[in-house]
């Protein structure tokens, strides 16, 4: 960037609630008691199912929605209470990108990126170099005079990103920005966002229903369900030791490991009478490896395990792995204690006869 970039701003949600008027005088609670702090320069992914409250949460950061209770602050400024010039100033600090790009069809790439600066009343001599810079940053120099209809989805999102950065915001909001893109284009857009975060230091808050997006880009994450944050923390920590059932179910989609059908169909929560096998998820992080552990279980304790499925993932530079195992239920407590003592995390998924 030719002009010095601003650093990111913290985003804080403090006991935020939001209710909408519903039909017949009823009220729809979209958010309840949401407290979350996103540090300056972090990339935070909010994941949740449809209707969980993600968009409502995001839209509070730029004042498109106001909380019914609690406060939302950007860089210490209370967004919900801001009006007029103060709200406009906050909005200049908060850029946003959208699932369907929201570009003006009648404007070229250049014209779309320049628009927020024209609205802000910047002199045209200052607009040109900044827009050229932004177009170069997102790699669209050769397409600057094209119209949106002449661009691919990934290129359109690059225009959306350049436009969102035009006012040199401290925060970038991403509303399912890669949901309409194919997996390869998703990766290039996520890489671009990560580069922007690294180079400009701005805080990125993104909402998604895809755990892979969180894994690939977010330093921190929060899981939202029924308007409440059910789990949050550094992405690596949540992936390695998910506590909430919703988090686990999102994770089972992304780790690519699910129980084989012949086991899943027979799985019971309670241990049955007689001989049975316990089905276990074992998670290992960083330097802990399972290979020696599983063979030591056999050589030291005489406990044999069956590996049902397994995969190794990376979160940023850190590897972590997941294994699904089954073993004699009568020896399972002993085996789990042994694995936990050696730094592995275990979770009982159920039992099969
Ligand atoms: N303007 C509104 N008026 C009434 N109810 C609303 C309004 N906006 C959202 N809601 C309700 O609030 C809840 C949360 O909606 P929200 O759009 O924030 O969820 P979401 O997680 O973003 O879902 P999706 O992924 O489908 O966009 C839903 O029950 C929704 O119907």
Automatic annotation (TrEMBL):
Molecular functions per Gene Ontology: ATP binding; ATP hydrolysis activity
Keywords for this protein: Amino-acid transport, ATP-binding, Cell membrane, Membrane, Nucleotide-binding, Translocase, Transport
GO biological process terms held by the UniProt record: amino acid transport
ABC transporter domain sequence ranges: 11-251
Matches recorded under CDD domains: ABC_MetN_methionine_transporter
Coiled coil: none
SUPFAM superfamilies named in the record: ACT-like, P-loop containing nucleoside triphosphate hydrolases
Keyword check for Membrane: yes
Domain of life: Bacteria
GO cellular component, one term: plasma membrane
PANTHER family per record: AMINO ACID IMPORT ATP-BINDING PROTEIN (PTHR43166), METHIONINE IMPORT ATP-BINDING PROTEIN METN (PTHR43166:SF30)
Known role: Part of the ABC transporter FtsEX involved in cellular division. Important for assembly or stability of the septal ring.
Family assignment from sequence similarity: Belongs to the ABC transporter superfamily.
Annotated protein name in UniProt: Cell division ATP-binding protein FtsE
């Amino acid at each position: 960037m030719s002009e010095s970039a601003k650093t990111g701003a913290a985003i804080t949600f403090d006991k935020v609630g939001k209710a909408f008027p519903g039909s017949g005088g009823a009220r729809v609670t979209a958010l309840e008691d949401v407290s979350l702090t996103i540090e300056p320069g972090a990339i935070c992914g909010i994941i949740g199912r449809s209707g969980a409250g993600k968009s409502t949460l995001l839209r509070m950061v730029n004042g498109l929605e106001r909380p019914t209770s609690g406060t939302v602050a950007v860089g210490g400024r209370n967004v919900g209470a801001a009006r007029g010039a103060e709200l406009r100033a906050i909005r200049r600090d908060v850029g946003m990108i959208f699932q369907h790009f929201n570009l003006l069809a009648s404007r070229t790439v250049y014209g779309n990126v320049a628009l927020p600066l024209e609205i802000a009343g910047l002199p045209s001599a200052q607009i040109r170099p900044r827009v050229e810079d932004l177009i170069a940053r997102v790699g669209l120099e050769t397409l600057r005079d094209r119209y949106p209809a002449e661009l691919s989805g990934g290129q359109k999102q690059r225009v959306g990103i350049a436009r969102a950065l035009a006012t040199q915001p401290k925060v970038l909001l991403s509303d399912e920005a890669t949901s309409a893109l194919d997996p390869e284009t998703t990766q290039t857009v996520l890489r671009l966002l990560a580069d922007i975060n690294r180079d400009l230091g701005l805080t990125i808050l993104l909402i998604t229903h895809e755990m892979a997006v969180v894994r690939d880009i977010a330093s921190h994450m929060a899981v939202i369900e029924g308007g409440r944050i059910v789990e949050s923390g550094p992405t690596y920590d949540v992936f390695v030791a998910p506590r909430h059932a919703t988090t686990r179910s999102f994770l089972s989609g992304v780790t690519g490991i699910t129980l084989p059908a012949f086991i899943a169909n027979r799985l019971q929560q309670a241990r049955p009478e007689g001989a049975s096998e316990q089905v276990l998820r074992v998670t290992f992080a960083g330097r802990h490896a399972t290979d020696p552990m599983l063979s030591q279980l056999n050589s030291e304790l005489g406990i044999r395990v069956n590996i049902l499925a397994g995969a190794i993932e990376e979160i940023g530079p850190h590897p972590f792995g997941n294994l699904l195992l089954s073993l004699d239920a009568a020896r399972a407590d002993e085996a789990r204690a042994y694995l936990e003592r050696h730094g592995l995390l275990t979770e009982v998924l159920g039992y099969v006869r």
